[in-house]
Amino acid sequence: MNSDRSPCAVGANARDGGSHKLALSPWCGLIKVTKVLMQATLAILLSPALPAMAAPAPDIDLKLSCSNSTGEGAARVILADSGEIRIRQGQLLAFRWESSLHRRTHGFDCSMDLSDKLELQPLESGWRVSPEDAAAARMERGYDTDRGRVCLVNLHKKGDTLHIAPSCPALCGSRLDFAELEVHLPSGRCTYYHPTE
Fold it and tell me: What is the pTM of this model?
């Protein structure tokens, strides 16, 4: 007689038609589940640390009112930016931005607001705002020069500072682009990156 048995087998003396019948112990399933759990736990402990989940993009609540002037006389340049940006829980609730550059005899403007059918995309530390169709938004303004279809505004929040980095010639008249600036949110103080453009 073969004496090898599974540790889960019981009832080896039961007979039916001359053949042995082996039943499974009720503890057998528990032993197998415990073994699987131990193996899974060991695999987790030995595996490299799992990367932390990315933090959600931050809320933004900003009322923008900035200006800066450089140069003297005919070379004087005045920059002025005003508007509002409000993003909460991934929803763009308000967006209005007017960015102007004035020289002694003329001025150039760029503008963007919710009527441009803006889309919101999360970034690692903020948001990207862009119109659904920049070329169509430009045509609605009546601009007669083709400035392409590029229009996006990156909003990077770090602590109490919001960096506004535009690349949107499509929604500007004769000006090359909106102003790039940094805003200290508690005080509203602005710093222009290129104060003569």
Answer: 0.70
In tens, the pLDDT along 77-122 reads 999 999 999 999 999 999 999 999 998 777 789 999 999 999 999 9
Same domain, 163 and 115: yes
Number of domains in the chain: 2
Q: Which two tokens mark 141?
A: 């303004």
Domain contains 155: yes
Tell me, yes or no, whether 3 lies in a domain.
Answer: no
Distance CA 66, CA 75 (A): 20
My answer on whether 119 and 183 are in the same domain is yes
Q: What is the DSSP string of the chain?
A: ------TTEE-TT-EETTEE--EEPTHHHHHHHHHHHHHHHHHHHHSPPPPPPPPPPPPEEEEEEEEEEES-GGG-EEEEEEEEEEEETTEEEEEEEEEEEE-SS-EEEEEEEGGG-EEEEEETTEEEEEES-HHHHHHHTT--S---S--EEEEEEETTEEEEEEE-GGGBSSSSSPPPEEEETTTTEEEESSTT-
